[in-house]
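Contributing: when you submit paired examples, paste them exactly as shown. First protein:
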Amino acid sequence: MARIGLVAHDDKKDDMCAWAERHRAKLARHQLWGTGTTGSRVKAATGLEIALLKSGPLGGDQQLGAMICEGRLDMLIFFIDPMSAQPHDVDVKALTRLATLYDVPLANNRSTADAVLAHLAN
Protein backbone atom coordinates (compact mmCIF):
# COMPACT_ATOMS: atom_id res chain seq x y z
CA MET A 1 0.00 0.00 0.00
CA ALA A 2 1.42 3.36 -1.05
CA ARG A 3 0.87 6.68 0.67
CA ILE A 4 -0.25 9.20 -1.96
CA GLY A 5 -0.65 12.97 -1.67
CA LEU A 6 -3.25 14.72 -3.83
CA VAL A 7 -3.28 18.44 -4.58
CA ALA A 8 -4.45 20.56 -7.50
CA HIS A 9 -4.52 24.24 -8.33
CA ASP A 10 -8.00 25.78 -8.58
CA ASP A 11 -8.29 25.49 -12.36
CA LYS A 12 -7.13 21.85 -12.19
CA LYS A 13 -9.40 20.58 -9.41
CA ASP A 14 -12.03 19.32 -11.88
CA ASP A 15 -9.27 17.44 -13.75
CA MET A 16 -8.08 15.91 -10.47
CA CYS A 17 -11.61 14.79 -9.59
CA ALA A 18 -12.11 13.24 -13.04
CA TRP A 19 -8.72 11.52 -12.86
CA ALA A 20 -9.42 10.14 -9.38
CA GLU A 21 -12.85 8.95 -10.44
CA ARG A 22 -11.35 7.12 -13.43
CA HIS A 23 -8.76 5.44 -11.14
CA ARG A 24 -11.00 5.00 -8.12
CA ALA A 25 -10.47 1.23 -7.79
CA LYS A 26 -6.67 1.54 -7.86
CA LEU A 27 -6.62 4.53 -5.52
CA ALA A 28 -8.86 2.74 -3.02
CA ARG A 29 -6.01 0.27 -2.39
CA HIS A 30 -3.73 3.04 -1.14
CA GLN A 31 -3.62 5.55 1.72
CA LEU A 32 -4.61 8.99 0.42
CA TRP A 33 -3.82 12.44 1.77
CA GLY A 34 -5.15 15.63 0.24
CA THR A 35 -4.95 19.34 0.79
CA GLY A 36 -8.22 20.72 2.15
CA THR A 37 -10.14 21.81 -0.92
CA THR A 38 -8.67 19.28 -3.36
CA GLY A 39 -9.08 16.39 -0.93
CA SER A 40 -12.66 17.39 -0.08
CA ARG A 41 -13.63 17.67 -3.74
CA VAL A 42 -12.04 14.33 -4.66
CA LYS A 43 -13.65 12.67 -1.66
CA ALA A 44 -17.09 14.02 -2.64
CA ALA A 45 -16.64 12.99 -6.29
CA THR A 46 -15.35 9.48 -5.62
CA GLY A 47 -16.30 8.42 -2.10
CA LEU A 48 -12.64 7.56 -1.46
CA GLU A 49 -11.27 7.79 2.06
CA ILE A 50 -8.88 10.74 2.10
CA ALA A 51 -7.13 12.21 5.12
CA LEU A 52 -7.62 15.96 4.81
CA LEU A 53 -4.89 18.49 5.52
CA LYS A 54 -5.11 22.29 5.52
CA SER A 55 -5.91 24.10 2.30
CA GLY A 56 -2.73 24.53 0.21
CA PRO A 57 -2.32 28.28 0.78
CA LEU A 58 -3.06 27.85 4.49
CA GLY A 59 -0.30 25.30 5.07
CA GLY A 60 -1.47 22.13 3.33
CA ASP A 61 1.38 22.25 0.80
CA GLN A 62 3.82 22.55 3.69
CA GLN A 63 2.16 19.67 5.53
CA LEU A 64 2.67 17.45 2.47
CA GLY A 65 6.28 18.68 2.29
CA ALA A 66 6.82 17.69 5.91
CA MET A 67 5.39 14.25 5.20
CA ILE A 68 7.87 13.86 2.34
CA CYS A 69 10.78 14.90 4.61
CA GLU A 70 9.66 12.44 7.28
CA GLY A 71 9.36 9.55 4.80
CA ARG A 72 5.57 9.38 5.22
CA LEU A 73 4.59 10.02 1.58
CA ASP A 74 5.46 7.69 -1.31
CA MET A 75 4.02 9.63 -4.23
CA LEU A 76 2.68 13.11 -4.94
CA ILE A 77 0.02 13.87 -7.55
CA PHE A 78 0.02 17.64 -7.97
CA PHE A 79 -1.98 18.96 -10.92
CA ILE A 80 -0.33 22.32 -11.51
CA ASP A 81 -1.90 25.09 -13.57
CA PRO A 82 1.02 26.43 -15.63
CA MET A 83 -1.05 29.33 -16.99
CA SER A 84 -2.01 31.01 -13.70
CA ALA A 85 0.09 32.80 -11.12
CA GLN A 86 -0.34 31.35 -7.65
CA PRO A 87 -0.34 33.61 -4.60
CA HIS A 88 1.40 30.86 -2.62
CA ASP A 89 3.96 30.09 -5.33
CA VAL A 90 6.76 29.90 -2.75
CA ASP A 91 4.97 26.99 -1.03
CA VAL A 92 4.35 25.26 -4.37
CA LYS A 93 8.02 25.54 -5.31
CA ALA A 94 9.09 24.26 -1.89
CA LEU A 95 6.80 21.24 -2.20
CA THR A 96 8.01 20.29 -5.68
CA ARG A 97 11.61 20.87 -4.56
CA LEU A 98 11.18 18.49 -1.60
CA ALA A 99 9.63 15.80 -3.81
CA THR A 100 12.65 16.11 -6.11
CA LEU A 101 15.18 16.23 -3.26
CA TYR A 102 13.74 13.15 -1.52
CA ASP A 103 13.20 11.28 -4.82
CA VAL A 104 9.43 10.97 -4.36
CA PRO A 105 7.57 10.34 -7.62
CA LEU A 106 5.83 13.58 -8.60
CA ALA A 107 3.12 13.76 -11.26
CA ASN A 108 2.08 17.22 -12.44
CA ASN A 109 -0.46 16.16 -15.07
CA ARG A 110 -2.85 13.33 -15.95
CA SER A 111 -0.56 11.35 -18.24
CA THR A 112 2.27 11.29 -15.70
CA ALA A 113 -0.17 10.44 -12.91
CA ASP A 114 -1.52 7.57 -15.04
CA ALA A 115 2.00 6.21 -15.57
CA VAL A 116 3.06 6.48 -11.94
CA LEU A 117 -0.15 4.93 -10.66
CA ALA A 118 0.14 2.08 -13.19
CA HIS A 119 3.64 1.41 -11.89
CA LEU A 120 2.35 1.24 -8.30
CA ALA A 121 -0.39 -1.19 -9.28
CA ASN A 122 2.11 -3.71 -10.72
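Second protein:
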Amino acid sequence: MDRNKEIQGHLLAFITIFIWGTTFISTKILLDVLTPIEILFLRFAIGFLVLLLACPHRLKVKEFKHELYFAGAGLCGVTLYYLLENIALTYTLVSNVGVIISIAPFFTAIFAHRFLDGEKLQTRFFIGFLIAVIGILFISLQGGNNLQIHPLGDILAVLAAVVWAVYSILTKKISGFQYNTIQVTRRIFLYGLVFMVPSLFIFGFKPTLNELLTPAHLFNILFLGLAASALCFVTWNSAVKILGAIKTSIYIYMVPVITVVTSVIVLQEKMTGASVFGIVLTLTGLFISQRKKHKKRD
Protein backbone atom coordinates (compact mmCIF):
# COMPACT_ATOMS: atom_id res chain seq x y z
CA MET A 1 0.00 0.00 0.00
CA ASP A 2 1.20 3.50 -0.82
CA ARG A 3 2.56 5.16 2.36
CA ASN A 4 0.70 8.45 1.80
CA LYS A 5 -2.54 6.58 1.15
CA GLU A 6 -2.10 4.61 4.37
CA ILE A 7 -1.47 7.81 6.37
CA GLN A 8 -4.64 9.27 4.82
CA GLY A 9 -6.59 6.20 5.95
CA HIS A 10 -5.33 6.49 9.54
CA LEU A 11 -6.09 10.23 9.56
CA LEU A 12 -9.66 9.61 8.34
CA ALA A 13 -10.19 6.93 10.99
CA PHE A 14 -8.84 9.21 13.74
CA ILE A 15 -11.01 12.18 12.67
CA THR A 16 -14.06 9.91 12.67
CA ILE A 17 -13.39 8.48 16.11
CA PHE A 18 -12.51 11.91 17.53
CA ILE A 19 -15.93 13.23 16.53
CA TRP A 20 -17.78 10.06 17.57
CA GLY A 21 -16.06 10.21 20.95
CA THR A 22 -17.66 13.61 21.62
CA THR A 23 -21.20 12.65 20.57
CA PHE A 24 -22.09 11.34 24.03
CA ILE A 25 -22.08 14.93 25.30
CA SER A 26 -24.44 16.11 22.52
CA THR A 27 -26.73 13.12 23.03
CA LYS A 28 -26.81 13.71 26.79
CA ILE A 29 -27.91 17.33 26.23
CA LEU A 30 -30.58 16.35 23.67
CA LEU A 31 -32.06 13.63 25.90
CA ASP A 32 -33.58 16.46 27.95
CA VAL A 33 -36.03 17.19 25.11
CA LEU A 34 -35.91 14.18 22.76
CA THR A 35 -36.20 10.41 23.11
CA PRO A 36 -33.34 8.18 21.87
CA ILE A 37 -35.28 7.12 18.74
CA GLU A 38 -36.15 10.76 17.94
CA ILE A 39 -32.47 11.73 18.18
CA LEU A 40 -31.50 8.75 16.05
CA PHE A 41 -34.03 9.41 13.28
CA LEU A 42 -33.42 13.17 13.13
CA ARG A 43 -29.62 12.90 12.99
CA PHE A 44 -29.66 10.44 10.11
CA ALA A 45 -32.43 12.30 8.28
CA ILE A 46 -30.26 15.44 8.46
CA GLY A 47 -27.24 13.41 7.38
CA PHE A 48 -29.12 11.98 4.41
CA LEU A 49 -30.27 15.44 3.24
CA VAL A 50 -26.75 16.87 3.55
CA LEU A 51 -25.26 14.02 1.51
CA LEU A 52 -28.03 14.47 -1.06
CA LEU A 53 -27.09 18.15 -1.42
CA ALA A 54 -23.38 17.31 -1.52
CA CYS A 55 -23.84 14.75 -4.29
CA PRO A 56 -27.33 14.94 -5.86
CA HIS A 57 -26.55 12.45 -8.63
CA ARG A 58 -28.49 9.20 -8.47
CA LEU A 59 -26.52 6.09 -7.62
CA LYS A 60 -26.73 3.65 -10.53
CA VAL A 61 -26.43 0.18 -9.04
CA LYS A 62 -24.65 -2.31 -11.30
CA GLU A 63 -26.09 -5.49 -9.77
CA PHE A 64 -29.06 -6.32 -7.56
CA LYS A 65 -26.66 -8.12 -5.21
CA HIS A 66 -25.00 -4.76 -4.51
CA GLU A 67 -28.35 -3.33 -3.44
CA LEU A 68 -28.64 -6.12 -0.87
CA TYR A 69 -25.25 -5.14 0.55
CA PHE A 70 -26.41 -1.51 0.88
CA ALA A 71 -29.59 -2.63 2.63
CA GLY A 72 -27.63 -4.87 5.00
CA ALA A 73 -25.22 -2.05 5.84
CA GLY A 74 -28.12 0.32 6.54
CA LEU A 75 -29.84 -2.24 8.75
CA CYS A 76 -26.70 -3.09 10.74
CA GLY A 77 -24.69 0.16 10.85
CA VAL A 78 -27.56 2.61 11.25
CA THR A 79 -30.74 0.99 12.56
CA LEU A 80 -29.74 -2.04 14.65
CA TYR A 81 -26.47 -0.75 16.08
CA TYR A 82 -27.88 2.49 17.46
CA LEU A 83 -31.17 0.97 18.60
CA LEU A 84 -29.41 -1.85 20.44
CA GLU A 85 -26.95 0.58 22.02
CA ASN A 86 -29.67 3.01 23.13
CA ILE A 87 -31.92 0.27 24.51
CA ALA A 88 -28.94 -1.32 26.28
CA LEU A 89 -28.32 1.98 28.08
CA THR A 90 -31.80 1.74 29.63
CA TYR A 91 -31.04 -1.68 31.15
CA THR A 92 -27.38 -1.48 32.15
CA LEU A 93 -24.70 0.99 33.21
CA VAL A 94 -23.08 3.39 30.76
CA SER A 95 -19.68 2.03 31.83
CA ASN A 96 -20.78 -1.51 30.92
CA VAL A 97 -21.91 -0.41 27.46
CA GLY A 98 -18.66 1.52 26.92
CA VAL A 99 -16.54 -1.53 27.72
CA ILE A 100 -18.68 -4.02 25.78
CA ILE A 101 -18.96 -1.88 22.63
CA SER A 102 -15.17 -1.63 22.59
CA ILE A 103 -14.93 -5.35 21.79
CA ALA A 104 -16.39 -4.67 18.31
CA PRO A 105 -12.87 -4.87 16.76
CA PHE A 106 -12.60 -8.45 18.08
CA PHE A 107 -15.76 -9.52 16.24
CA THR A 108 -14.66 -7.53 13.19
CA ALA A 109 -11.35 -9.40 13.11
CA ILE A 110 -13.08 -12.79 13.39
CA PHE A 111 -15.56 -11.98 10.60
CA ALA A 112 -12.88 -10.40 8.40
CA HIS A 113 -10.68 -13.46 8.77
CA ARG A 114 -13.59 -15.63 7.70
CA PHE A 115 -15.17 -13.55 4.92
CA LEU A 116 -12.53 -11.15 3.54
CA ASP A 117 -9.44 -11.88 1.51
CA GLY A 118 -6.19 -10.41 2.80
CA GLU A 119 -7.53 -9.67 6.31
CA LYS A 120 -5.76 -12.27 8.44
CA LEU A 121 -5.53 -12.50 12.23
CA GLN A 122 -2.20 -11.75 13.88
CA THR A 123 -1.05 -12.51 17.43
CA ARG A 124 -0.27 -8.82 18.02
CA PHE A 125 -3.93 -7.99 17.36
CA PHE A 126 -5.08 -10.12 20.31
CA ILE A 127 -2.29 -8.81 22.58
CA GLY A 128 -3.27 -5.23 21.74
CA PHE A 129 -6.96 -6.09 22.15
CA LEU A 130 -6.47 -7.43 25.70
CA ILE A 131 -4.33 -4.44 26.76
CA ALA A 132 -6.84 -1.97 25.28
CA VAL A 133 -9.86 -3.62 26.94
CA ILE A 134 -8.09 -3.57 30.33
CA GLY A 135 -7.39 0.12 29.75
CA ILE A 136 -11.03 0.77 28.83
CA LEU A 137 -12.10 -0.99 32.05
CA PHE A 138 -9.96 1.44 34.06
CA ILE A 139 -11.44 4.40 32.15
CA SER A 140 -15.02 3.20 32.68
CA LEU A 141 -14.46 2.69 36.40
CA GLN A 142 -12.80 6.09 36.90
CA GLY A 143 -15.67 7.27 39.07
CA GLY A 144 -15.11 4.43 41.50
CA ASN A 145 -18.16 2.45 40.37
CA ASN A 146 -18.02 -1.32 40.38
CA LEU A 147 -18.66 -3.10 37.11
CA GLN A 148 -21.99 -4.83 37.65
CA ILE A 149 -23.61 -7.44 35.46
CA HIS A 150 -27.03 -6.57 34.01
CA PRO A 151 -27.78 -9.56 31.74
CA LEU A 152 -30.34 -8.04 29.36
CA GLY A 153 -28.57 -4.72 28.83
CA ASP A 154 -25.13 -6.34 28.58
CA ILE A 155 -26.35 -8.88 26.01
CA LEU A 156 -27.89 -6.08 23.93
CA ALA A 157 -24.56 -4.23 24.06
CA VAL A 158 -22.75 -7.36 22.85
CA LEU A 159 -25.25 -7.66 19.98
CA ALA A 160 -24.57 -3.99 19.13
CA ALA A 161 -20.84 -4.77 18.91
CA VAL A 162 -21.57 -7.76 16.68
CA VAL A 163 -23.79 -5.84 14.23
CA TRP A 164 -21.19 -3.06 13.99
CA ALA A 165 -18.62 -5.70 13.08
CA VAL A 166 -21.01 -6.98 10.39
CA TYR A 167 -21.39 -3.39 9.14
CA SER A 168 -17.59 -3.07 8.88
CA ILE A 169 -17.38 -6.25 6.80
CA LEU A 170 -20.23 -5.12 4.54
CA THR A 171 -18.65 -1.71 3.93
CA LYS A 172 -15.33 -3.35 3.06
CA LYS A 173 -17.17 -5.55 0.54
CA ILE A 174 -19.02 -2.49 -0.82
CA SER A 175 -15.74 -0.60 -1.25
CA GLY A 176 -14.76 -3.18 -3.83
CA PHE A 177 -17.77 -2.29 -6.00
CA GLN A 178 -16.06 1.01 -6.97
CA TYR A 179 -18.98 3.35 -6.29
CA ASN A 180 -18.72 6.96 -5.10
CA THR A 181 -18.33 6.91 -1.29
CA ILE A 182 -20.79 9.77 -0.68
CA GLN A 183 -23.45 8.14 -2.85
CA VAL A 184 -22.91 4.80 -1.12
CA THR A 185 -23.17 6.35 2.35
CA ARG A 186 -26.34 8.19 1.31
CA ARG A 187 -27.90 4.92 0.10
CA ILE A 188 -26.95 3.22 3.38
CA PHE A 189 -28.56 6.07 5.34
CA LEU A 190 -31.73 5.73 3.26
CA TYR A 191 -32.04 2.05 4.09
CA GLY A 192 -31.26 2.77 7.72
CA LEU A 193 -34.08 5.33 7.89
CA VAL A 194 -36.51 2.96 6.16
CA PHE A 195 -35.71 0.14 8.60
CA MET A 196 -36.10 2.65 11.45
CA VAL A 197 -39.72 3.52 10.58
CA PRO A 198 -41.34 0.58 12.47
CA SER A 199 -39.52 1.59 15.66
CA LEU A 200 -40.99 5.11 15.33
CA PHE A 201 -44.46 3.60 15.72
CA ILE A 202 -43.34 1.36 18.58
CA PHE A 203 -41.46 3.98 20.62
CA GLY A 204 -43.29 7.10 19.36
CA PHE A 205 -42.04 10.08 17.42
CA LYS A 206 -43.28 13.44 18.69
CA PRO A 207 -40.33 15.86 18.91
CA THR A 208 -41.13 19.25 20.43
CA LEU A 209 -40.19 21.80 17.77
CA ASN A 210 -39.94 24.79 20.12
CA GLU A 211 -37.51 22.98 22.41
CA LEU A 212 -35.53 21.59 19.49
CA LEU A 213 -35.02 25.05 17.96
CA THR A 214 -33.38 26.54 21.03
CA PRO A 215 -29.72 27.37 20.20
CA ALA A 216 -28.13 24.66 22.36
CA HIS A 217 -30.42 21.86 21.18
CA LEU A 218 -30.32 22.97 17.54
CA PHE A 219 -26.52 23.10 17.59
CA ASN A 220 -26.25 19.61 19.04
CA ILE A 221 -28.74 17.95 16.66
CA LEU A 222 -26.98 19.62 13.72
CA PHE A 223 -23.63 18.46 15.08
CA LEU A 224 -24.93 14.88 15.24
CA GLY A 225 -26.50 15.12 11.78
CA LEU A 226 -23.76 17.02 9.92
CA ALA A 227 -20.55 15.91 11.62
CA ALA A 228 -21.25 12.64 13.44
CA SER A 229 -23.45 11.19 10.67
CA ALA A 230 -22.94 12.76 7.23
CA LEU A 231 -19.21 13.48 7.57
CA CYS A 232 -18.13 10.63 9.83
CA PHE A 233 -19.80 7.79 7.97
CA VAL A 234 -18.14 9.00 4.76
CA THR A 235 -14.73 9.27 6.42
CA TRP A 236 -15.16 5.91 8.21
CA ASN A 237 -16.20 4.12 5.02
CA SER A 238 -13.25 5.73 3.22
CA ALA A 239 -10.87 4.57 5.97
CA VAL A 240 -12.23 1.01 5.74
CA LYS A 241 -11.69 1.13 1.98
CA ILE A 242 -8.04 2.15 2.45
CA LEU A 243 -6.97 0.29 5.61
CA GLY A 244 -9.33 -2.65 5.70
CA ALA A 245 -11.98 -3.61 8.24
CA ILE A 246 -9.65 -4.83 11.01
CA LYS A 247 -7.21 -1.91 11.12
CA THR A 248 -9.98 0.69 10.97
CA SER A 249 -12.12 -0.96 13.65
CA ILE A 250 -9.21 -0.88 16.11
CA TYR A 251 -9.69 2.90 16.36
CA ILE A 252 -12.91 2.17 18.29
CA TYR A 253 -10.62 1.65 21.30
CA MET A 254 -10.10 5.42 21.35
CA VAL A 255 -13.78 6.35 21.80
CA PRO A 256 -13.76 6.13 25.64
CA VAL A 257 -10.39 7.94 25.72
CA ILE A 258 -11.77 10.87 23.74
CA THR A 259 -15.01 10.85 25.73
CA VAL A 260 -13.12 11.17 29.02
CA VAL A 261 -10.84 13.95 27.75
CA THR A 262 -13.71 15.98 26.24
CA SER A 263 -15.84 15.54 29.37
CA VAL A 264 -12.96 17.03 31.38
CA ILE A 265 -12.70 19.99 29.00
CA VAL A 266 -16.41 20.61 28.31
CA LEU A 267 -18.18 19.31 31.42
CA GLN A 268 -15.35 20.10 33.85
CA GLU A 269 -15.31 16.51 35.09
CA LYS A 270 -12.30 15.37 37.10
CA MET A 271 -9.76 12.99 35.52
CA THR A 272 -8.62 10.39 38.04
CA GLY A 273 -5.39 8.43 38.21
CA ALA A 274 -7.29 5.32 37.10
CA SER A 275 -8.52 7.05 33.95
CA VAL A 276 -5.02 8.32 33.08
CA PHE A 277 -3.63 4.79 33.53
CA GLY A 278 -6.50 3.45 31.44
CA ILE A 279 -5.83 5.94 28.64
CA VAL A 280 -2.14 4.91 28.54
CA LEU A 281 -3.08 1.21 28.37
CA THR A 282 -5.72 1.79 25.69
CA LEU A 283 -3.36 3.78 23.46
CA THR A 284 -0.66 1.14 24.00
CA GLY A 285 -3.09 -1.57 22.92
CA LEU A 286 -4.02 0.47 19.86
CA PHE A 287 -0.35 0.91 18.93
CA ILE A 288 0.44 -2.79 19.33
CA SER A 289 -2.59 -3.85 17.28
CA GLN A 290 -1.72 -1.43 14.47
CA ARG A 291 2.03 -2.15 14.43
CA LYS A 292 3.23 -3.80 11.27
CA LYS A 293 5.05 -7.09 11.27
CA HIS A 294 8.53 -6.40 9.92
CA LYS A 295 9.88 -8.92 7.46
CA LYS A 296 13.28 -10.42 8.20
CA ARG A 297 16.03 -9.58 5.77
CA ASP A 298 18.17 -12.30 4.34
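If you have annotations for the second protein, write them as plain sentences, like these:
Residues 215-243 form the longest helix (29 residues).
The CA atoms of residues 162 and 285 lie 20 Å apart.
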